[in-house]
Design a protein that fits this description.
Strand content: under 5%
Structural class: mainly alpha
Shape: globular
Number of helices: 8
Radius of gyration: 25 Å
Oligomer: single chain
Helix content: 55-70%
Length: 191
């Protein structure tokens, strides 16, 4: 190899970043955690216990009424209400009205086109549009429309159960917010 070829290689090596052989532990953890803010002490335990309690009550009600299909969308709702109570999509207006509007879209799609994954997908998209227009953003409610199209629950039992379950999620969020001395108060607004 000539000296003309060796010089550019050395120059490239000098400008290249050296690979860390063993990065110190103090530099790895911050990179894994990222820039997301850390939760306040006790917040995680408080949020998890509140959301779990609400879900256990919903499972008991669903089992008693033979309607366990509420669990997926309302589990996501409970997670939002209890972990990020200050967001607009966690407010009572969005939780309750969002689920009821999406139920209406789901039943409309089911009535017009029947039960299929294609109808469920369109119902989810239309639900998002309806919630956006109604200023009730609540992404878990889109799953309510999907559940209705795919599982075809009886609206006479499902809709009251859905409304009651959404109210339960909201009231549990209120109660747990009041039980906490610090943190974001829930709700920020009702309507």
């Amino acid at each position: 190899m000539s000296t003309d070829q060796i010089a550019p290689e050395r120059e490239q090596q000098q400008h290249a970043r050296p690979l860390p052989s063993a990065a110190p532990r103090g530099r790895i953890l911050p990179r894994l955690v990222g820039r997301a803010p850390a939760p306040a002490p006790g917040t995680v335990l408080h949020s998890v216990s509140g959301a779990t309690a609400v879900m256990l009550v919903l499972v008991a009600i669903g089992a008693a009424l033979h309607e366990p299909v509420l669990i997926p969308p309302l589990a996501a709702s409970a997670a939002i209400v209890h972990s990020v109570p200050g967001l607009p999509l966690a407010q009572p207006r969005s939780v309750i009205a969002g689920h009821l509007l999406c139920a209406a879209v789901g039943y409309a799609g089911l009535g017009a086109f029947g039960s299929s994954p294609w109808v469920a997908a369109v119902a989810a998209g239309l639900s998002l549009a309806v919630m956006t227009l109604a200023r009730t953003p609540h992404s878990p409610a889109c799953a309510t429309a999907v559940v209705i199209v795919l599982r075809t629950p009886d609206p006479r039992t499902f809709v009251p159960l859905l409304a009651g379950a959404a109210l339960l999620v909201v009231f549990a969020g209120c109660a747990l917010s009041r039980a906490r001395r610090t943190g974001t108060r829930y709700p920020q607004y009702w309507w």
